[in-house]
Amino acid sequence: MDVRIDKYLWAIRVFKTRSEATEACAGGKVKLAGANPKPSKAVRPGDVIEIRKGAVQYTFKVLEPLEKRVGAALVPKYAENLTPESELAKLRAPVETFFLRRDRGAGRPTKKDRREMDELWGMMDFPADIGDFDEDDENDDEG
Question: Whole-model pTM above 0.85?
Answer without folding.
Answer: no
